[in-house]
Amino acid sequence: MTKYIVVSGGVISGIGKGVIASSTGTLLKSLGLRVTAIKIDPYLNIDAGLMSPLDHGEVFVLNDGGEVDLDLGNYERFLDVELSRINNITTGKIYSEVIEKERRGDYLGKTVQVVPHVTDAIQNWVERVAAMPIDESGEQPDVCIIELGGTVGDIESAPFVEAMRQFQFRVGHDNFCLIHVSLVPVVGSVGEQKTKPTQMSVRDLRGAGLSPDLIACRSSTPLDESVRGKISMFCHVAPEQVLAVRDVSSVYHVPVLLRENGVVDFFRKRLNLDSIKISKERKLAGEELWTKWTNLTVGYERLYDTVKIALVGKYTNLHDSYISVYKALEHASLAMNRKLEIKWIEASDLEHETLKTNPIKYHESWQNLCSADGILVPGGFGARGVEGMIMAAKWARENKIPYLGICLGMQIAVIETARHMCNMKDANSAELDPDTKTPVVVYMPEISKTHMGGTMRLGLRPTVFQPNTENSKVRKLYNGNASVDERHRHRYEVNPEHVSAFEEAGLKFIGRDESGERMEIVELDDHPFFVGCQYHPEYLTRPLKPHPLFRGLISAAIGQL
User: Fold this and answer.
1) Phi/psi of residue 443, nearest 5 degrees
2) Is the N or the C terminus of the chain less surrounded, counting Cβ atoms within 10 Å?
């Protein structure tokens, strides 16, 4: 029987439920258990694909093309698993399924209601996901971690809370455990820790029929014993069930912190984990994972040399918009024994218009760009800031600064090359200027122009290295492989009509799709590292296995490529 661990949140959103859920999964995986994860998002959208990065953070893409919440990226990175779109449940998906059943006549003669029909649909979905294998063994996971998005007490999350209340009885007490993540704010000049918000959120949770087994108290400072005792008394849990989750230097320290709080021993008893049969090989693999993880956290604390990367993007006001890119850079930096320093540059601040409206911001942005060891231009949509990105790519090319362009960033490199190396002065993308006379980036013919949701070129697709590319820097980073599988998310592609002109100028398309017509990887001759890729390599990075392209960028930035 699969064990279920639900992670809920109180007081405020964005409290760190995803990190707690991922860290819990890492701890259980270190015991040799198979762990899967589900993220419940209470919004009405079918998926995250059409949500603004500035509103909801990054859209994470899975192998099957699912556009999901960024927390699934956390799960994949921490647990080193590959999830599918079914692992992300939204109100939109549930209601769509229920309404479709009603139209088919599955509920014939019945009044369709939130309880029991919607709540049953949620529970059935959870059990369906928990039964899906997450590795080559084909066996059912031992543990399923469910992150309940939003905040307890929200109107939109009420059906999911009710579904979990019913679910605890469906699976039984020994197979269901609840972690409630709450905030313990530090108030006033004396730094007093306040417990009342946690008491209120636990009261709301109990009022909905769920009792927390563990209360993870987020605080900027270590939790006082008196505060722990107070939360224990007023929230009806033992003191050892109150976890002190203080701010730490990196998210990689959170599993270590939870282990120090006795979480593993608690789960052993509460969920009777010793009853699960674990092979010797899996136990050894779990122990090896934990050794590598603790070494990672120790190494993180001992980093002194820094590497400075300028991230030139469109959504830099919310860093979560590029969380996978940030993590990929961090993983690569850790592997190269460097402390990462990111300079967040809003692309439009590099443009001449900003010199007139905000000269201080303009000069600051250019100073950050010029002082960087490497430059990264990530994906994005729309025309805003594109000219600033082109200037950044031009600076990197002319001054031999390592450059990595992802998706839009690769298209930027192509436009820059066209304008300044191929004498195509009015070269542009059809996305940015539909009337351009020289479209070097064009709309892919198979993509719908009427429906936006889920219609891009999405998911895991092969990229084939072209003949005579054995000496390519990128191919060497991929260990000389003939092809690689990477995740995509785009509507536009490099115009194949201009490829020969770019290659004559030294911009080589060393990787293409299986047809050979769609450009996937570009690399500039006679440059330390000037690379663009149409896919999103950041989606496949892992803390203990950094992605080759990011490792290449960091290696070039510190002069070790």
Assistant:
1) -70, 135
2) N
CA–CA gap between residue 393 and residue 170 (Å, rounded): 57
For residues 44 and 93, give the distance between their C-alpha atoms in angstroms, rounded to a whole number.
Answer: 8
> Could you tell me the two tokens for 443?
């709309």
Tell me if residue 180 is catalytic: no
Q: In whole angstroms, what is the distance from residue 76 CA to residue 428 CA? A: 36
Query: pLDDT class for 429, splitting at 50, 70, 90?
Result: very high
- Which of 118-127, 181-190, 243-252 is the most confident on average? 118-127
Helices 263-270 and 17-29: crossing angle in degrees, nearest 10, is 70
The pTM of this model reads: 0.93
**How many CB atoms are closer than 10 A to CB 55?**
9
Q: How confident is the model at residue 13 (pLDDT cuts 50, 70, 90)?
A: confident
Q: Which residue is catalytic, options 253, 331, 490, 536?
A: 536
Among candidates 104, 105, 97, which has minimal Cα distance to 124?
Answer: 97
What are the residues whose beta carbons fall under 8 Å from the beta carbon of 468, sequence distance 6 or more?
Answer: none
Catalytic residue among 235, 407, 422, 533: 407
Q: How far does the chain reach from its first CA to its final CA, in angstroms?
A: 49
Residue 144 a catalytic site member: no
287 is catalytic: no
- Between residues 33 and 303, which one has the greater pLDDT? 33
Beta strand pairing call for 483-490 and 457-465: antiparallel
Find all residues with CB under 8 Å of 356, minimum gap 6, and list them. none
139 pLDDT above the threshold of 90: no
Question: In angstroms, rounded to a whole number, what is the distance separating the alpha carbons of residues 561 and 558?
Answer: 8
What are the residue ranges of helices labelled H in 32-86?
53-56, 71-79
Cβ atoms within 10 A of the Cβ of 298, count? 11
Write the single-letter amino acid at 456.
M
Q: Tell me which residue has tokens 């709080």.
A: 261
Instruction: Answer for the pair 339, 303: CB distance below 8 angstroms, yes or no.
Output: yes
